[in-house]
Amino acid sequence: KSSPNSMARLLQAPPKFHPSEWDLANQMQRASTESQKCRSERTVAESQRLLDEIEKTTQKTQSDVNKKIEQRQKEIKFWKQELDNKLEQIVQETEVLLTFKTRLEKSLESCKEPLMIAQKCLLNRQRRTGIDLVHDEVEQELVKEVELLQEVIALLGRTLEQTNEQIRLNRSEKYSLEMDLKDKFTALMIDDYCANLTNNTPNISSCDSAMKTEGNFVSPEDWVDFSNVNVEKAEKQRSNSLALRALIDSILSQTASDLRKQREAVNTALANRVQEVKAAKHKLETLLAEVLDETASQEKNIAALRKAIADKEGPAKVAHTRLEARNRRPNVELCYDPVQHRLTREVQEITQNVQRLQDTLAEAETVLKGLSRRQLSLEEEIQVKENSLYIDEVLCMQMRESVCINNF
C-alpha cells in the first residue's frame, strides 16, 4: 500500500515550462533535423559516386580479366599448335625410321645364306686331293669373303641396335609431347569455360579456398620453357633420326656394293681356276695318250724280240745236232775241217745273238714297266684334277649361283 504522502506527491501537477523554453526546444528540433538531413544527403551523394566508381572499376577489371583470358587462350593455342606440329613430325619420322629398321633386318637376314655358302665352299675345297690341295687365289678370295660377310653382319647388327635405341628415344619424346598437349588441352578447356562465364551464368558460387597464391603455381617463364624444351628435345631427336637414316642408307648401299665386288672376285677366281685345272687335265690326257701309244709300240717290240729268241731255237738245234753227229766220225775222219770250224762258230754266234736279244728284251720289259707306272701316275693325276673340277665347277659354282646380293 502506498503511504498517503506518496499518493499526495503523485497527484501533484508536473512543473510548467516557460514559453521561451518551448521556442528553444522547437528550434533545437529543427536544427537537429536539418543537420541530420544534410548528413544523409551527403552520404547519398557519396554513395552514388562510390557506386558509379565501383561499377566502372568492376566492369573495367572484368573486361581486363576477359582480355587476359583471351590472350592466354591465344598463347595456349600457339603452343598447342607448336607441340602438335612437332608431334606430327616425330610420329612421321619414327614411321619412316621403322621402315629403315625393316631394311636393316632384311639385309642382315640376307647375309646368312651367302656366309654359309662361302664356308661350305671352303669346306668342300678341303676335299681336293694331292697336289691340288693348294692355297690358290680362290681360297684367298673365299677367306676374304667370309671375313667381309662377318664384318658386315657385325656392322648391320650394331646399326640395328642404334636404330632401336633411336626409335625408343623418338617414342619417349612423342610421349612427352602428348602429355604436354593433353595438359594444354585441359587448360584450354578450362580457360574456354572461364571465358564463357558471365555474371548471369546460373549455378556459380563464390568460394574462399580458391584464393590461394602460394604453393604449386608455375611462373609464366617456366611455363613457356617447359613446352619449349619439349619441342627442342623432340626436334633434336628428329634430326638425330634423320642423320641415322642417312647413315643407314649409305651403310646398306656400301655393304651391298662391297659384297657384290667380293662375290665377283670369288666367282672370277673360281672360273679362272676351273680353266687352269681343265688345261692341266687336258695336258695330262695328251701325255697319257702318248704313253699309251708308246706302250702299244713297246709291247709289239717285246713280242718281236720274244719271237726272234724263239726263232733261234731251230738253227741252234740244227747246229748242235750236226756237231754231235760229226763228233762220231771215225779215226782220221774226225778232222777239224772248215765245216767243223764253221759249225763251232755258228753255235757261238747263235748263243751270243740270243743273249743279245735277251738283254734287249729285259731292257724293253723294264721300259714297259716304267711306261706302266707313268700311265698309272697320269691316270691318278687326271683323277685328282677331275675331283678338283667337280668341287669347283659343280659344287661351288652351282651353290654360288643362288647367291644374290640385293639392295634393301
Can you characterise this structure?
Keywords: Cell projection, Cilium, Coiled coil, Cytoplasm, Cytoskeleton, Flagellum. InterPro entries: Tektin-like, Tektins. It is found in: Cytoplasm, Cytoskeleton, Cilium axoneme; Cytoplasm, Cytoskeleton, Flagellum axoneme. It is built from 6 helices and no strands. It is mainly α. It folds into 2 domains: 191 residues, Substrate Binding Domain Of Dnak, Chain:A, Domain 2; 111 residues, no CATH class. Helix 2 packs antiparallel against helix 3 and helix 2 runs parallel beside helix 4. The chain is rod-shaped. It starts with a helix and ends in a 7-residue tail after the last helix.
By DSSP (H or I, 4+ residues per run), the number of helices equals: 6
The average pLDDT is: 93
Biggest pleated-sheet summary: none
Euclidean distance between termini CA atoms: 131 Å
* % residues in beta strands: under 5%
Unreliable sequence segments: none
> How is the CATH topology of the largest domain named?
Substrate Binding Domain Of Dnak, Chain:A, Domain 2
Structural class: mainly alpha
Question: Approximately how much helix is present in the residues?
Answer: over 70%
Radius of gyration: 65 Å
Shape: rod-shaped
SSE series: HHHHHH
Number of domain units: 2
Sum this structure up briefly:
The chain is an all-alpha fold and 408 residues long.
Topology at a glance:
Layout: H1 4-11, H2 19-125, H3 137-196, H4 220-311, H5 313-326, H6 338-401
Please describe the structure with a list of short key phrases separated by commas or semicolons:
Substrate Binding Domain Of Dnak, Chain:A, Domain 2; 408 residues; Tektin; flagellum; mainly alpha; 2 domains; cell projection; rod-shaped
